[in-house]
Design goal:
Length: 486
């Protein structure tokens, strides 16, 4: 395998942090994680706050002095973070609160069991989103893979539940109109932020959720889904998942119908999400994508060799593609050997690495809050996003880089995907009609009103049934149980 964990990087990460507790005076923070700058490594200069701040100031005199604003002490990371997050919406790529609403409330919002304005257990509520200065959220409308993989041919409950998750997400957003605003365009997300609301968008976490049907992709797009992860932790008719490869299965990459799905998603303007897919799937998609791709919640494989992350060659392809990798906060992806000891610094490591290989234009955040029980020390819930910005700044990131991370990148990428779709549509490209090759179609009845002679002849010889008469009524319209099927 081309990409392996770098021992020197591992050591540097292990050495570069200390956990001081409790140091903070800020309310509920019981633990503050602070980095110890290192002078070694190819990009370690960025971790040296004073040097980095000096370089940043020299390169951009206005880095810490925005128009109409008072100058800020460059080491006042909290104030710099506040200014950044007031200037651009912080948009998280992946939160599973709709799944919590499903399993805990059976999608009932009206019985008063939960007030999302109050502090809840778990990772997400509106109070803590405000504390965390969240400006936009892609809500995942996740539904399980079917254990028997029946979604290939019998997708009914998976698709039904997906429709219900779209419904509950939109109803949840509409339930809090002062705080939240449903959005299905990048411009809407910017507008919601300007009006002081948190934009709420919808993402589908796996091609199994559309029953291997491209027509269903079109329908969930019409219902508001703006990204679809090609797979979750199961293969489907579109692509191979990372979990299959992790279990020793073959990496067949993007499958025949997957090429059609990507083509259609590009035509629609639906973001193609490569989190959860196998590495070959990532490469295959990047080889044919006609628009930027996203990773809604993944990291850098060269920092931690988990198959959920993007290897360096993929990060370079994403750079060419104009896409984005939104860093995930899940412990077992951040620290495979000791998940419980994963910290906010591990997330920072992934962000710096993605930026190093793909550019700062590539980075975003996709927490997976409310979708995983395991979150890093220092990033316990949605209120902690600003802490991540402070740590990144302390390690040398500039305000402009933080603006890109927060929301500028995903909004630009999304906007470019929307524009690309309009260009494709302007060529007259028709909706894609490819289908899963194992698809069974209803055969119809012998006495159906066929449109084509061949169909009628085929039905006559194929032994198909005739339309049953179901009502058991006589010629007078009276019920008569003796009248059976004709
Ligand atoms: Zn996921």
């Amino acid at each position: 395998m081309a990409d392996t964990s770098s021992p020197s990087l591992e050591r540097r990460r292990a050495d570069s942090r200390t956990i001081d507790e409790p140091q903070s005076t800020e309310g509920e923070r019981s633990l503050t994680v602070r980095s110890r700058p290192q002078a070694s490594g190819a990009w370690s200069w960025v971790r040296y706050p004073l040097v980095a701040a000096g370089v940043a100031l020299a390169l951009s005199p206005l880095a810490f002095l925005w128009p109409g604003e008072n100058p800020i002490d460059p080491t006042n990371y909290a104030e710099r973070t506040r200014r950044v997050l007031k200037s651009i919406p912080l948009i998280d790529g992946h939160n599973d609160l709709p799944w919590q609403i499903r399993i805990e409330l059976h999608n009932r919002l009206q019985d008063g069991r939960v007030d999302f304005n109050k502090k809840l257990l778990g990772h997400t509520d509106l109070q803590r989103m405000r504390q965390g200065m969240v400006g936009g959220q892609f809500w995942s409308v996740y539904v399980d893979c079917d254990d028997q993989q029946k979604h290939f041919e019998d997708p009914s409950w998976v698709v039904r539940d997906t429709l219900e998750q779209i419904d509950i997400t939109r109803r949840f957003i509409n339930e809090y109109p002062e705080d939240l605003q449903y959005c299905d365009t990048a411009a809407c997300a910017r507008g919601a932020f300007a009006s002081g609301r948190i934009s709420g968008m919808i993402g589908i976490e796996g091609g199994h959720q559309v029953g291997s049907s491209i027509a269903t992709i079109r329908q969930v797009y019409d219902l508001g889904a703006r990204y679809m992860t090609l797979t979750h932790n199961c293969d489907n008719a579109f692509a191979t998942s990372a979990s299959t490869v992790a279990a020793g299965g073959p990496d067949d990459g993007l499958l025949k119908l997957g090429y059609a799905a990507v083509k259609e998603m590009n035509r629609l303007g639906m973001m193609v999400d490569l989190s959860h897919v196998s590495h070959k799937t990532m490469r295959d998609v990047l080889g044919v994508a006609r628009a930027p791709v996203i990773f809604s919640h993944s990291g850098a494989y060269s920092v931690e060799p988990h198959l959920r992350h993007a290897p360096d060659d993929v990060l370079r392809l994403v750079k060419q593609n104009g896409g984005i990798v939104m860093a995930v906060f899940v412990n077992r992806f951040l620290n495979m050997k000791n998940p419980d000891s994963a910290t906010i610094h591990d997330v920072a490591d992934h962000i710096f690495r993605i930026a190093e290989v793909c550019g700062w234009e590539c980075v975003g955040m996709g927490s997976d809050f409310s979708g995983t029980p395991e979150v890093p020390i220092g990033l316990e819930d949605v209120s902690k996003f600003p802490d991540l910005f402070e740590i990144l700044m302390e390690r040398g990131a500039t305000d402009e880089q933080m603006r890109m991370l927060a929301g500028e990148n995903i909004l630009r990428v999304w906007g470019n995907i929307e524009r690309r779709a309009l260009e494709i549509q302007a060529t007259g490209e028709k909706p894609n009609e490819e289908e899963y090759e194992g698809r069974n179609w209803h055969k119809g009845l012998k006495n159906a009103p066929w449109m084509l002679r061949q169909s009628r002849e085929k039905a006559a010889t194929s032994g198909g049934a005739e339309e049953p008469y179901m009502f058991n009524v006589d010629g007078e319209g009276k019920h008569n149980p003796l009248i059976k099927q004709v």
